[in-house]
C-alpha cells in the first residue's frame, strides 16, 4: 500500500542521516553522494538545512558528522522507555553474574534497538554499541520481542509459556544469547533483557546458572 502525504525533500534529508552507520563517523560529500545516489548539489542544499538545525556538523576539511541535536532526540527517545537509572544497575548485576555482555532491547517496527548495554570484560566478547539496530526476526532478543508483541507469530506460545528464549548462532554463527521479557507496571512488555557472548561458552551449566537470576532481575525492573 502506498504511503500518502510523503515529502520528497524530507525523505532525502533522512536518507542522508541514515548514511551514518557508526559512532563518530565522518563522511565526505563524495561518499554521501555514493551512498545516497543524490547529486552533490542536492546533498549540499539538504546538509545546509540539517546543519542549521543541529542534525549535522561540517568539519573544517568538508567532511560531515552527526550533530548534537540527534543526541538530544535520542535522550528524549530513551525517556519514553525504562530510564537508565533503572536498567543500568540491572545490567551490571547480570554482567557480574554471567561474565558476559548484558543488554536491554526494545522493539521499533521490524527492528530491535539496543537501548542499553554493558559489554563484557572478556578479551573476546560480543560487542555492540548502544543505539544499534538489529533484525527483529533472528536472535534471542528479537524472537522474544516478537513472541510478546505478535501472539500468532510461529513459536510465540512456547516462548511466552517458557518466559525466555535462547539463540545459538542465529545472527552471528559464533554468538549465543539468552533473553527474558521485562514488563512495565501495566503488564505490557517493555523490552528484552539479554546476556550474550561466544557460543562456545554458553553450555548448559552457564544457562542454568544465569536464567533464574535473569528472570529475577527482570521481575524487579519497572517503569
In words, what does this structure look like?
This protein is an alpha+beta fold and 223 residues long. The protein has 8 helices and 8 strands, in the order H-H-H-E-E-H-H-E-E-E-H-H-E-E-E-H. Strands 5-4-3-8-7-6 form a 6-stranded antiparallel β-sheet, with helices on both faces. A hairpin with a 5-residue loop joins strand 1 (56-58) and strand 2. Helix 1 (8-18) crosses helix 3. The longest helix has 17 residues, at 204-220. It is elongated. The two termini are 36 Å apart. The relative contact order is 0.11. The mean pLDDT is 87.
Descriptive key words:
alpha+beta, 223 residues, elongated, two-stranded antiparallel ribbon, six-stranded antiparallel beta sheet
In short:
The protein is α+β, with helices and mostly antiparallel strands and 223 residues long. It is 42% helix and 22% strand. A hairpin with a 5-residue loop joins β1 and β2.
Secondary-structure topology with pairs:
Layout (H helix, E strand, L loop, with lengths): L7 H11 L10 H8 L3 H13 L3 E3 L5 E3 L1 H12 L4 H15 L2 E8 L2 E8 L14 E3 L4 H10 L6 H7 L2 E4 L6 E9 L5 E10 L5 H17 L3
Antiparallel strand pairs: 1-2, 3-4, 3-8, 4-5, 6-7, 7-8
Beta-strand content estimate:
15-25%
Shape: elongated
Continuous helix count:
8
How many extended strands? 8
Provide the spatial order of strands within the biggest beta sheet.
5-4-3-8-7-6
N-end to C-end Cα span? 36 Å
The share of residues in helices is: 40-55%
Uncertain stretches: none
- Please write the string of helix (H) and strand (E) elements: HHHEEHHEEEHHEEEH
Radius of gyration, in Å, reads 20 Å
Sheet of most strands: 6 strands, antiparallel
In round numbers, the mean pLDDT is 87
Characterize the quaternary organization of these chains: single chain
What class would the helix/strand composition place it in? alpha+beta
Amino acid at each position: 500500500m502506498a504511503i500518502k502525504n510523503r515529502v520528497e525533500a524530507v525523505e532525502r534529508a533522512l536518507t542522508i542521516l541514515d548514511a551514518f552507520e557508526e559512532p563518530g563517523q565522518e563522511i565526505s560529500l563524495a561518499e554521501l553522494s555514493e551512498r545516497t545516489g543524490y547529486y552533490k548539489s542536492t546533498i549540499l542544499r539538504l546538509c545546509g538545512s540539517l546543519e542549521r538545525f543541529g542534525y549535522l556538523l561540517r568539519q573544517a576539511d568538508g567532511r560531515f558528522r552527526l550533530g548534537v541535536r540527534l543526541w538530544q532526540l535520542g535522550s528524549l527517545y530513551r525517556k519514553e522507555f525504562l530510564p537508565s537509572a533503572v536498567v543500568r544497575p540491572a545490567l551490571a548485576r547480570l554482567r557480574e553474574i554471567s561474565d558476559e555482555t548484558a543488554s536491554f532491547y526494545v522493539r521499533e517496527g521490524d527492528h530491535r534497538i539496543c537501548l542499553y548495554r554493558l559489554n563484557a570484560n572478556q578479551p573476546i566478547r560480543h560487542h555492540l554499541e548502544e543505539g544499534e539496530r538489529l533484525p527483529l526476526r533472528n536472535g534471542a532478543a528479537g524472537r522474544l520481542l516478537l513472541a510478546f508483541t505478535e501472539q500468532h507469530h510461529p513459536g510465540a506460545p512456547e516462548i511466552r509459556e517458557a518466559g525466555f528464549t535462547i539463540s545459538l548462532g542465529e545472527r552471528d554463527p559464533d554468538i549465543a544469547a539468552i533473553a527474558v521479557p521485562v514488563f512495565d507496571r501495566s503488564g505490557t512488555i517493555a523490552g528484552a533483557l539479554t546476556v550474550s557472548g561466544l557460543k562456545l561458552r554458553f553450555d548448559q551449566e552457564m544457562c542454568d546458572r544465569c536464567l533464574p537470576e535473569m528472570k529475577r532481575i527482570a521481575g524487579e525492573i519497572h517503569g
